[in-house]
Amino acid sequence: MNEIDLHYPPEACPFCNIASAFPAPSSSLRTPTYTEQAASIPTEKEADHEKVSPNAYVVLASRDVVAFLDILPMTRAHLLVATRVHRVKVQDLEGEESREIGFWLPILARVVSRVAGVRDYNIVQNNGARAAQVVPHVHFHIIPRPETMPQIQNKSWTMFGRGQRDELDDEEGVKIAGEMRSVLREELKLICGKDKVGKL
C-alpha cells in the first residue's frame, strides 16, 4: 500500500460511503433493459442527500457506477462519476466496471451540459497524490465551463488546486441534482430508443 491508500482506507472512503448509502438496482443482467437502467436513477425520496455525512447529491446509482455533485464545485453542476467498488486508480478497474463507466460517462456529460447551459466542459481523471487525486477512489470530474469564468483572486483559471472553491449550498445541491436526474431520464429514453435496451 502506498501512503495515499493508508490516508484513506476503503472503510473511511467518502465515495464508498456514498455508494453503500445509495444501493444499485437489484438486476443482475449484464445488458440491462431501459427499465433496469432507469431504475439506476434515484427517485426524489431515494436521493435523500442527508443519508451520508457530508451530504451527497446523487444523480446515478447503477450496478458499478455512482454519480454525484462535487461538494466543492469549481462551477455550477460540477459532477463526479465514481466506481461503486473501491478502486484507487484506473489501472485497478475490472472489465465490467470499465464498460459501465464508458456507457454512462458520455450520457452524464450531456446531462451536465444541458443542466449547466454550456457547450464546453472538462472531463478530468487523476491517479495518485502527485497527479492531484485528493480522494483515492477512481472518479471522473465533469466540469462545465461557462462563458463567463468565475472571479479568481490570482487571475489564473487552473484545473485543480486549493484556491477559491466554495461549499455547495444544500438547497442548490438538491435543486441541481433533481434537475440532473430528470434530464438523465430524458437522455436515457433517447439513447435506448424503441427496443428499450441499453448497450453496456
Automatic annotation (TrEMBL):
Catalytic-site annotation from UniProt: H139 (tele-amp-histidine intermediate)
Domain HIT: 45-157
PROSITE patterns: HIT_1 (PS00892), HIT_2 (PS51084)
Pfam families noted in UniProt: HIT
GO biological process, one term: nucleotide metabolic process
UniProt xrefs under Gene3D superfamilies: HIT-like
Motif (Histidine triad motif): 137-141
GO molecular function: catalytic activity
SUPFAM superfamilies cross-referenced by the UniProt entry: HIT-like
PANTHER family: HIT DOMAIN-CONTAINING PROTEIN, HIT FAMILY PROTEIN 1
The protein's name in its UniProt record: HIT-like protein
